[in-house]
Design a protein that fits this description.
three-stranded antiparallel beta sheet, alpha+beta, binds zinc ion, 13-stranded mixed beta sheet, 533 residues, globular
Length: 533
């Protein structure tokens, strides 16, 4: 966009919420300025479109500088082209967080993250944050207009008697045409990240004008609006029912069965609109993995993919554990019976951490939380959509915790110190059998769950690791039952357990780096788009 006074470049100034000329500093209201004058009203025509040769992502840019790399895959092979006939979004939420604030939020978040690759704190790298608009679909939903009648009931207890009362009630839906939940219109943008940086404040949406994009980038919508229809109708119906239920408080309303509710309320669409929501976007790439840092351009909420510097991490953990272990053994004497029980417990607890780590990878590899991915080449996915829907219902797994591994190790050394000296006095030989049995049963369940999870992973090494852990626990149980005299039977069991534990730990860290980065995206073979929105 050019300045009418001096034909310098105009950009959208976030602090002023105005268009400002780079050259003469003149200011203009965004609404006064209509982008491409020859264009048909309300349509992008002739604006720059960048297509990544590597991953197929498409970026709209109203920036005069050429786009030199792709935000999604970090590749520098970008083709320039022109947009033609893409409709404007209906609304836009202009940026509120400027680049300096964005970088401050990022740096604050990086404090204490000693284990990340050092590039993450390099000012030159952080300078690459890009202002980006992500397209979303907003659905307008209507319900039946006339009031309708329902049966209701109330049961209560008073003065020693149970009461049950029935009512005929009349209800009506107050909110018509409400905007449904926004859905990601971009397959490029990961739904998981979107959830982490949500919410955006709907009331700050303004009517779209091309001026808001001056100096910014936008992602081209490439997911069909009807992809989310079913879910929107379902959610809108649930919300309407919850609203009415709230009005009747202690009266229980007898709604039709779940599957008939939409029909009963006549839930239907009246329209769907694209809206643009602002994010700051930063991409890190190493070999064939990428990691993103994304900041909500309105609220400043941040998501960062944080890979660990493996060697640094291993070194610190091993060093810390060795020092503590050496210190503790100076004060406590332990018996072989305690050592075997303790290492089995350690293996079991690590196994639990291992399972939640595998689950997270399973969900990510199969894009369980990424509905927009439905459109893609389903063949890449090991899991069927039915399964994915099932896992999606279960919710996100607990989140990976590299710090939790360290915390866990320290916690265990504490137990070691506390019980090591007492174990032999507290626990008889028969008690030792019971102590191991307490671990054996949950371990069998854990084993089955782990194998079941590993089925959905591309890399199935998890099954071997789970077997090793189960073997260690079963062996220790046998030893506790047989009570051999020689110590080495016990130490052998501890060794197997410790081997299983360290195999799991290395695997967790290796996989941690896989979960904290992403495979290079590919947006080719896309279907759908904004053309009929
Ligand atoms: Zn000017
Ligand atoms: Zn790319």
């Amino acid at each position: 966009m050019k300045c009418p006074n001096c034909s310098g470049t105009l950009y959208f100034d976030i602090d002023k919420q105005k268009l400002v000329c780079e050259h003469c500093s003149a200011e203009f209201n965004v609404s006064e300025y209509s982008g491409n004058n020859d264009a048909q009203e309300g349509v992008f025509e002739g604006e720059k479109l960048y297509i990544c040769k590597n991953c197929g992502a498409e970026l709209i840019s109203m920036n005069d500088e050429a786009v030199t790399y792709c935000s999604y895959c970090g590749s520098e092979a970008v083709l320039q082209s022109e947009i033609s006939g893409m409709r404007y979004p209906k609304k836009i939420l202009p940026f509120r967080i400027n680049k300096k604030q964005c970088k401050d939020i990022y740096m604050k978040e990086m404090k204490g993250k000693w284990y990340v690759p050092k590039e993450f704190k390099d000012p030159e790298f952080i300078e690459k944050f890009r202002p980006f608009y992500i397209p979303y679909w907003m659905y307008q939903v209507q319900f039946r207009k006339e009031p309708f009648s329902l049966k209701g009931s109330r049961s209560y207890y008073s003065r020693g008697y149970d009461f049950y009362e029935e009512y005929d009630v009349t209800a009506a839906i107050r909110y018509q045409g409400m905007y449904g939940i926004p859905y990601d219109a971009s397959r490029n943008f990961d739904d998981g990240i979107a959830e982490n940086i949500a919410p955006f404040q709907r009331k700050l949406l303004v009517n779209f004008a091309p001026g808001y994009l001056a100096g910014m980038y936008a992602d081209k919508p490439n997911v069909d609006a009807d992809l989310y229809e079913e879910e929107v109708l379902e959610r809108a119906t649930d919300a309407a029912i919850a609203d009415i239920d709230k009005d009747f408080r202690d009266i229980t309303l007898h709604w039709p069965k779940k599957k008939d509710q939409q029909e009963f309320l006549e839930t239907h669409y009246t329209g769907v609109d694209a809206v643009f929501l602002p994010v700051w976007f930063l991409t890190w790439r190493k070999d064939d993995r990428v990691a993103y840092a994304v900041v909500n351009g309105q609220t400043g909420k941040i998501h960062i993919d944080l890979p660990a510097d493996m060697r640094l991490f291993m070194f610190m953990t091993v060093l810390g554990a060795a020092v503590l272990f050496a210190l503790l053994t100076m004060f406590v004497t332990v018996t072989s019976r305690f050592v075997i029980w303790f290492s089995v417990l350690l293996a079991y607890m690590t196994g639990r951490r291992y399972l939640s780590e595998l689950r997270e990878i399973r969900d990510r590899e199969n894009h369980v939380f990424d509905k927009g991915y439905l459109l893609s080449d389903e063949d890449d996915l090991v899991m069927s959509e039915k399964k994915r829907a099932k896992f999606r219902k279960k919710g996100t797994s607990s989140g990976s915790g590299i710090l939790r591994i360290i915390g866990g190790i320290l916690g265990f050394l504490f137990i070691f110190a506390l019980f090591g000296g007492l174990y032999d006095e507290l626990v008889t030989e028969d008690g030792a059998l019971a102590m191991t049995f307490i671990i054996l049963i949950p371990e069998i369940i854990l084993f089955l769950k782990t194998v079941n999870t590993a089925r959905y992973l591309r890399n199935k090494s998890g099954i071997f690791t789970a077997l090793l852990t189960l073997g260690a626990v079963v062996y220790s149980f046998t030893i506790a039952a047989a009570q051999p005299v020689q110590d080495w039977w016990y130490y052998l069991g501890s060794l197997i357990s410790l081997a299983a534990t360290s195999v799991m730990c290395t695997d967790i860290i290796r996989r941690y780096n896989e979960t904290s980065t992403r495979p290079l995206p590919s947006f080719y073979s896309r279907k759908g788009g904004n053309d009929h929105a």
